[in-house]
Amino acid sequence: MSNGNLPNPPTFRDDERLTGRKNGIAFQSKVELAVGSRGLLAYLAGDISCPPNPAHSSSYVTGQLYVQATATPITSPTPSHDEWQTRDRWVASVIVNNTDDPVGLGITVRDPAAKIWSDLAKQLGSRTEQLMMDAEDSLRAEKMLEDGSFDDHLKTLRKLLKEARDLGATISDSQFRSILLNSFPETWDTVTLTVPGTTSADAVEHLESHWIKRVRRARERESEATKVKALMTAATVQASAARLQLPDNHPICTNPICGKRGHTIERCWKKGGGAEGKGPSMLSAGFDKTLGLPDETLHAS
Fold this sequence. Notes:
By secondary structure, the chain is mostly helical. Helices cover 51% and strands 0% of the residues. It has twelve helices and no strands. The protein has helices spanning 24-36, 41-45, 81-96, 113-125, 129-141, 150-166, 173-181, 189-192, 200-249, 281-284, 287-291, 295-298. It is rod-shaped and about 140 Å long.
């Protein structure tokens, strides 16, 4: 492969770009992967020195056209001066173009790729162990709320896991599985204590299945409660309407010695009423209270 076959330097995703010490290790791995895929790690490590420029050589004859020697493979340890310059600048571009603030991190763009890389490694390596410990503590302290969302909780845990690993924390999958299971409230104990499998993926699958059931049941209860509330509201409205209609359907007798509900004075059987003496004989005898019959029944038309 010659220089002409070198593609444009890769552009990392926004979350993969170098922002500072917090994602320095992840960035270094990403750069090494990109550069190594083109066989140019030697330029990153500084293992290949820049050959002298033929134009500055004592054997260079002024006015004569310099003819480039046969192109070397991109992995060649003995590139020409021009080849070295092209390959070194490609490697440097991978670093610089994917760094948010090169100047702020002490990068001098004109330096060889190996020096840029070495200086950057020193700058990033000055991070304290405290940053890594804080990141691990944040991961272990994250807890699922009783009424929280499983999806949001899992997303937060994975984000914190990445941040901790980017700082150099060596958290294995089995450790993350344990952190995940311990992050749920006590009401989940019957679920977290019986999770099958050995990986975090097994745990996520089991917990997510349980979460989906919880959500479905909660929605069913909510739907049932809504129906009951609607029925109670309808019954209340009907009762209110009935009470509003009560004066018309059940008039109150204005006879001073009666005052019962269910008839008017014109149809009252008691003394002074319009139907005085026309009621059943037992009413006249005063048996209505003895029998316990409702006055409305005895005075019904």
